[in-house]
Amino acid sequence: MSDLIPTSQDSVAPSAARIALADDAPTIEELFSFAREAELRVRTLRMTIEDRVVNAKGEQLTTLEVQLRHPGHARVTTRRGADRVTNDYEIWLSDGETATAYQAANRSASVRKLPNRVAGSDQDDLPPFARQYVPLTRLPAGTLADAFIHPHGLFRNVLVTGPLAIVGTQQVAGREAIVVRARHPRSAKVLVDRPDRSIDVGIARDSGFVVLLTERIGESVTRHAEVTTLDLDATLFESAFELKLPADVRKLY
User: Cα–Cα distances in Å, from 251 out to 104, 167, 219, 245, 246?
Assistant: First the structure.
């Protein structure tokens, strides 16, 4: 058992201000505040997201498998298609200081320091909409893994740009999710900047993690991303955060 990840509380610095939601229906502001602190309620996490996008090529499936250990250690494996044996996958691995990215399809890899954040962007005297969230453990920017675990940008840059309403609850991965709908969010590309566009986001009542994202144009679903596995304080092994690159890998800088 020596290769188990240590689970000492000493390795986690900040803590969540709110441990759980009240039994009654939360306001949208309370729900978003609860979700922003979701990662602070766990020491380790395993999450699987299935992302289905419908476009001119038909339905395309992408699966993201996330393993996270605070502070700083994360692994995100991205697979395209339903075949788990395919070589069309990518691995992103970080130790909190550097990030290693490996693309199996072209056998290339890069090792880079994580970029510095803008100085002063997380100051407490900034209004919430202008403040940058500093995660306890960073994930690849612009991915669903980052949006589901660090939803501050999703809320600030997308959802709040349109009228919001809580539209109900839904069972996702065996958990109750509170669903918030944004109608005609303004943060969109020109082709989907339409009055009948909407985005539903489901937030797990027990943990605050985003577990569902559905985009619609009218009644047609154009994207449906759903968490299929969510293990809080999961048992992880040290090997999860190790990556042995092939001898013939092509390194990019």
Answer: 12, 48, 45, 10, 11
In the chain, what are the domains? Answer: 24-116+139-252 (2.50.20.10)
Rounded alpha-carbon distances, angstroms, from residue 94 to 18, 86, 99: 28, 23, 4
Is residue 198 within 8 Å of 218, Cβ to Cβ?
A: no
Pick from 97, 91, 111: which is nearest to 251 by CA? Answer: 111
pLDDT given for residue 10 in this prediction: 42
Q: What is the pLDDT of residue 22?
A: 78
Q: In what order do the strands lie in the sheet with 58-69?
A: 164-172, 175-183, 197-204, 210-217, 220-232, 44-55, 58-69, 73-80, 89-94, 98-103, 108-113, 250-252
Looking at residue 2, its pLDDT comes to 38
pLDDT-flagged residues of the chain (< 70): 1-15, 122, 128-130, 187-193
Task: Note the pLDDT of residue 191.
Answer: 61
Check the CA dihedral 171-24-157-232 and report its sign: negative
- Other residues' Cβ atoms within 10 Å of the Cβ of residue 80: 15
Full-model pTM: 0.86
- The C-alpha angle with vertex 79 and arms to 230 and 170, in degrees rounded to 5, equals 35
State the Cα–Cα distance between residues 79 and 116, nearest whole angstrom. Answer: 28
Q: Is 104 exposed, middle or buried (0-12, 13-18, 19+ CB in 10 A)?
A: middle
Give the pLDDT confidence score for residue 12 in this predicted structure.
Answer: 40
Sequence-ordered list of residues with C-beta below 8 angstroms from that of 195, at least 6 positions apart, any chain? 184
